[in-house]
């Protein structure tokens, strides 16, 4: 099983092969456009977690740039996420308000490794 | 050819299939540990760009969490990056100072799409 740890903010317990959706966004430079952005992102994470085959999600946001990586058991789970109506509506809201642009990549994870400090 | 745009902080011009290395890090909670971190990250980006088969790099850093995605033409290019001596030394420095832990994933990009606001 996978788990998310508040102590270590990366998704653990996954075993290749599986899929990663990498979404890199250019955020609006207008602060007013970003009101509600963090809440919308958190809602999407909750929604994704309800989909069968969801393995986890990682997120980091910098000045003007956000990277979200979500992990999925297979392409079918990823398709269900892509076609989810609330997700589609949130993407539209993103294009209208939050984003200046984005690039989305679907990739198959072949190998992974982890390091964590002891103690 | 690929390009990086200051206006749009994602890597453009790539065509699948190619490889993505997803590095998700838990950053030290001690601010003193992170002195020099941004400079070291920028140096690594410059170093990676010298390797044949490098396609680009995306980076976002949040409170306590960093995501770096680097893109590579093939596994051979990725191996040259992994085995680069300066990169190996920087990883050691990361484990000793910057990171509490990380997870690295090697994935094959199968599909991608982009949206950018007009005007």
SS summary, helix count of chain A: 3
Strand order, biggest sheet of chain A?
4-5-3-6
Distance between the termini of chain A: 23 Å
Mind summarizing the main beta sheet of chain A?
A: 4 strands, antiparallel
Shape of chain A: globular
Unreliable stretches covering 5 or more consecutive residues of chain A: 1-5
Rounded average pLDDT of chain A: 91
Overall CATH class of the domain at 35-110 in chain A: Alpha Beta
State the largest interface: A-B, 42 and 41 residues
CATH architecture name of the domain at 35-110 in chain A: 2-Layer Sandwich
Summarize the helix and strand pattern of chain A as letters: EEEHEEHHE
The percent range for helix content of chain A is 25-40%
- Alpha-carbon Rg of chain A, integer: 15 Å
Structural class of chain A: alpha+beta
What percent strand of chain A? 35-45%
> Would you tell me which CATH topology of the domain at 35-110 in chain A applies?
Alpha-Beta Plaits
Number of strand segments of chain A: 6
This entry's quaternary arrangement is: homodimer
What do these coordinates show?
Chain A has 119 residues and is α+β, with helices and mostly antiparallel strands. The first copy, chain A, has a domain at 35-110: Alpha-Beta Plaits, CATH 3.30.70.100. Chain A has helices spanning 37-48, 75-83, 85-98, and strands at residues 3-4, 11-12, 18-27, 54-62, 65-72, 99-116. Chain A has a four-stranded antiparallel beta sheet with strand order 4-5-3-6. In chain A, strands 1-2 form a two-stranded antiparallel sheet. In chain A, a hairpin with a 6-residue loop joins strand 1 and strand 2 (11-12). In chain A, helix 1 (37-48) packs antiparallel against helix 3. The longest helix of chain A is centred in the C-terminal third of the chain and has 14 residues, at 85-98. Chain A binds chain B through residues 7-12, 16, 20, 22, 24-26, 58-62, 64-67, 69, 95, 99-117, and chain B through 7-12, 20, 22, 24-26, 58-62, 64-67, 69, 95, 99-117. Strand 6 (99-116) of chain A pairs antiparallel with strand 6 (99-116) of chain B, so a sheet runs across the interface.
